TrEMBL record:
One of its GO terms (molecular function) is 5-oxoprolinase (ATP-hydrolyzing) activity. It comes from Pseudomonas denitrificans. NCBIfam families: 5-oxoprolinase subunit PxpB (TIGR00370). PANTHER family: 5-OXOPROLINASE SUBUNIT B. Gene3D superfamilies: 3.30.1360.40, Cyclophilin-like. This is 5-oxoprolinase subunit PxpB. The gene is pxpB. Keywords: ATP-binding, Hydrolase, Nucleotide-binding. The keyword Oxidoreductase does not apply.
Length: 225
């Protein structure tokens, strides 16, 4: 059941489903586009999640009852918007599967490393949310056979470009940062650049496909040790 409720003094939380599904992130992204267009400067930020859309608004341009009314009108034909019928953009990310945790992930999952690679690279992933760090895209859903809880002890330093998994999600660390996910490999592709427009090539609703490459191809693409 869809819920629309106040979230603090200047925000509105729209809960669109109880559980995510493959099509939901794209439909939420299209709803966000529509509301940005219709509300204009009244919105100061619009934050899609796996099942939610959080709207931050300017009290000098609108108020809660007005915003709720506009949102309810937009929801009246959601997800009937024709824009929701496309599949989002597909991004291919080349990965050298030689992560620090690959062997351990295989052991914990009762597999061999080659099977982990095949399972991970064998499906496309939907971008469900972007957060934690600039350009950090949460991708789902991971094959159930690879589902693992986060590491008991997070690392203080995970290199930029590290491909990782946790629970039923996978992601690439766009910058070096602390992190508690299991590392499967590395990519030389830059997934966040503040000098590029847009800074992050991935958007909520897009799809990502990981393409296994060898070390030589990784180095040739500019990959770091």
């Amino acid at each position: 059941m869809i819920r629309v409720e106040a979230f603090g003094a200047t925000a509105l939380l729209i809960t669109l489903a109880e559980q995510p599904d493959d099509a939901l992130p794209l439909r939420i992204a299209r709803l966000a586009e529509r509301l940005r267009t219709e509300l204009g400067a009244a919105l100061t930020d619009c934050v899609p999640g796996w099942t939610t859309l959080l709207l931050h608004y300017d009290l000098l341009r609108t108020d809660l009852p007005q915003l709720q009314s506009r949102v309810q009108a937009a929801l009246a034909d959601w997800p009937g918007d024709a824009l929701a019928n496309d599949g989002g953009r597909l991004h291919e990310i080349a990965v050298w599967y030689a992560g620090e945790d690959l062997a351990e992930v295989a052991r914990l999952c009762g597999l061999i490393p080659a099977q982990v690679i095949d399972l991970h690279a064998g499906r496309d992933y939907r971008v469900g949310a972007i957060g934690f760090a600039p350009g950090f895209a949460y991708l789902g859903e991971l094959d159930q056979r690879l589902a693992l809880a986060r590491r008991a002890t997070p690392r203080t330093h995970v290199p930029a470009g590290s491909l990782a998994i946790a629970e039923r999600q996978t992601a690439v660390y766009p910058q070096a940062s602390p992190g508690g996910w299991h590392l499967l490999g590395r990519t030389a592709q830059r997934l966040f650049d503040p000098h590029r427009q847009p800074p992050c090539p991935l958007a909520v609703g897009d799809c990502v496909r990981f393409v296994p490459i060898d070390e030589a191809a990784y180095r040739a693409a500019g990959g770091e040790p």
